[in-house]
Amino acid sequence: MRHLHWFRNDLRLNDNPALASHAAAESLLCLYLMPNPRPWCNLNGIGKQRDRFLRESLIELKAALNKRGQDLLVLEGSPELVIPHIVERFAITEISVSREPGFYESQTIEFLEERLSIPVVTHRGNSLFAEDELPMPLEDLPGVFSPFRRKVEKKLFVRKPIDEVERLPPTPAAQFDAIPKATEKPPMALPLPGGRQAGLRRLKQFVYDEERITEYKLTRNCLDGLDGSSTLSPWLANGNLSVREVAHTIFDFEQQRVANESTYWLFFELLWREFFHWRAHVDGQSMFQLSGATGKPRRSSFEPRAFARWCAGDTNYPIVNALMRQLVATGWMSNRGRQIAASCLINELDGDWRFGAAFFEKHLIDYDVGSNYGNWQYIAGVGSDPRGGRHFNLEKQTADHDPEGLFIEKWGGNRPAQPDYITDAADWPIDNEKV
Ligand SMILES: Cc1cc2nc3c(=O)[nH]c(=O)nc-3n(C[C@H](O)[C@H](O)[C@H](O)COP(=O)(O)OP(=O)(O)OC[C@H]3O[C@@H](n4cnc5c(N)ncnc54)[C@H](O)[C@@H]3O)c2cc1C
Question: In what order do the strands lie in the sheet with 73-75?
């Protein structure tokens, strides 16, 4: 009965059925492994802001566990190598995880089940509904959002989050090392600190203190965070907040104060998150394929220099430059901004959408496999968009969302124009040594 809980995107003690399942264990080892970049796209680890948000969240989680006589062991390395070693070292008899979508994530669990001769138990993850509550088997999950929403909204209610775990079995070892702090600070332009307490503060501020939720439908397309949308995504994606507690905060507010189209719309967006969460379970490896699950051939003449310019915010499109600079500096971008930046890479620069998705994965402090790859596929027309993809008119988007150019100016989006193609001796495959 020596258990291990492998924390992934469930960095909280409340509404965490996996963590709550260890009450009868003799000891419990809480483990977190720092994320690895996708194996097929080496963009060199995670961005500074994502790393910062994560470390702040882990330090707070460790302190919360310490208060309960527990601890958190944080290691680097792939789960396939590290976990078998830990299991042997601490003679672990059972592992728990919270359910997460993603092909590689599922493959890892399958590998561990096969490699270790102990149970690896998967519990409900950070979703509004458990799989057995869904009104259809996963194989019959609608391919587009609207039928999914109609089915779940009519039939299902969101269960209340389960209580915070108060008592946990002791750790099998003396205290683990402190987690090194991040070198970065939350950016002044968008200070979103990691950890559950900051998430709870933001939820209360957006819903109750400032009642911004009552005008959310009108403000959600604002390009800068905090003034427009809820900016709850980083805490949802890392699991500092449970999506059920966010949903119930909305319902309670609607009962106690105001219910209008905007309050409903915030819940509607949580249903989008839910849709992409379950689609990612079904779509498996096709989430990462150029044609997605459609199998439609998709032409793309990927040009490395254009991609590098897009990443650096150095294209000929000031709005896109400002957005990309905002992303790298803060780790966050609004939904409208993500749509504009993604459309630019796909349609203007003819780029392979998967590289854009991988760059977002590296930097977003709210990176979530289903929402990220699902939305990229949607815009590229190889996912769940019934219209077969989106092409945003960048001039119109700029006029609609940044009419006075303040956002572009704030993030330094006006860059010197550059030729689309450069022919340079350095581009020729000549071995200078031999010339
Ligand atoms: C190309 C692209 C990539 C994206 N990558 C991610 C990602 O990695 N992680 C992520 O959480 N979201 C992603 N999104 C969805 C969306 O942009 C963000 O969830 C949203 O901008 C976060 O800001 P917010 O919390 O203020 O959102 P709000 O507008 O306040 O919405 C509330 C919550 O609803 C959910 N939500 C809102 N819009 C969407 C959506 N389109 N799809 C799925 N869930 C949604 C989020 O959990 C969000 O926190 C992506 C969208 C695009 C177009």
Answer: 73-75, 27-33, 2-7, 94-98, 120-123
